[in-house]
Amino acid sequence: MSDMGLFEGKKGLVLGIANDRSIAWAITEKLHEQGAEIAFTHMPDVGDRPKNQRKVAKLVEPIGARFLVPCDVCDDDQIATVMDKTAEEFGKIDFILHSVAFAPPEDLTGPTWNSSRAGFSKAMEISAYSLLAVAGAAKRKGILSEDSSILTLSYFGGEEVIPGYNLMGLCKAALECGVRYLASELGPDGCRVNAISAGPLRTVSAAGVGDFDQMTSLYAAVAPLRRNITAEEVGKSGMFLLSNLASGISAEILHVDCGFSKMGAPAEDYGQTK
Fold first, then answer.
1. What is the dihedral of CA 175, 116, 45, 38, to 10 degrees?
2. All structural domains of the chain with their residue ranges
């Protein structure tokens, strides 16, 4: 059997790693293990202290990041600059991993009916529209290879009501719809577009959503596998969807949640101690 990795000779761009607990980082580790060459963006820093840049650099520089630049996804000029840098460094790329989401805490923690107009707009712009903006900029720049893949990250709260997920659930519903439309529109160019809907992991995003411990306990009790997922499992699944192993898969929302999302009610042993 060949020792070549699935991503030998493949190049790509990862947007949105926050720290070593990010789902995007779990996927990145698997891409790197398989030989991918990767460039990265980070959230712009405010003021003179490059806090975000340093945090991400500590992760990506040891794995040979081709570059690390700031990108405010609300700024089309910054997105265009990233695509220019990507074209200059790589020419064409084979994958984009989009891991960007945000809602103002005061709008996220309350009921959806109490979301402010400005907060709703900001959350949708960053969490859903940014995928369209990034994909559109890459297409206009002509940097997507003829066998490329775009992957974004969602959650079950975009399909069904998850108390505490609130405004972000509306954003993920829009994001998943965007995946389907982008898949249809970019498909003729050979580009696949998919999303992973992961079960609960203790990430920065999860910290602002409801009672995390209660959620993980529920998943472990209800999911067919009777446990929660691991970051490594999501990492492997993301790597798979971005690879040629998934060449026939597009416009899909892949649930990596130990089967939780397919349970209409808890199993008969729910609540029983072992």
1. 0
2. 11-258
Report, as an integer, the average pLDDT of 202-228: 78
Which of the residues 165, 181, 219, 270 is marked catalytic?
165
Token pair of 50 as six digits: 């490059």
> Sheet holding 37-42: strands in order across?
68-70, 37-42, 11-15, 93-98, 144-154, 191-198, 253-256
Question: Among this protein's residues, is 165 annotated catalytic?
Answer: yes
Start-to-end C-alpha separation, the chain:
43
Cα 20-151-246 angle, rounded to 5 deg: 115
What's the pTM value of the predicted model, to 2 decimals? 0.94
The runs of H, that is alpha helices, within the chain are 23-33, 51-60, 76-90, 105-108, 117-124, 130-141, 167-186, 212-222, 231-242
* CA–CA separation, 242 and 46 (whole Å): 32
Residues 126-159 have pLDDT tens digits of: 999 999 999 999 999 999 999 999 999 999 999 9
Average pLDDT, the chain: 94
Q: Are 207 and 109 in contact (CB under 8 A)?
A: no
Give whole-number Cα distances, 255 to 27, 152, 231, 243, in Å: 15, 12, 14, 17
Q: Residues 144, 138: contact at Cβ < 8 Å?
A: yes
Q: Of 155, 181, 219, 270, which one is the catalytic site residue?
A: 155
Task: Please tell us whether the domain made up of 11-258 is placed in CATH 3.40.47.40.
Answer: no
Alpha-carbon gap, residue 49 to 54, rounded angstroms: 9
270 flagged as catalytic: no
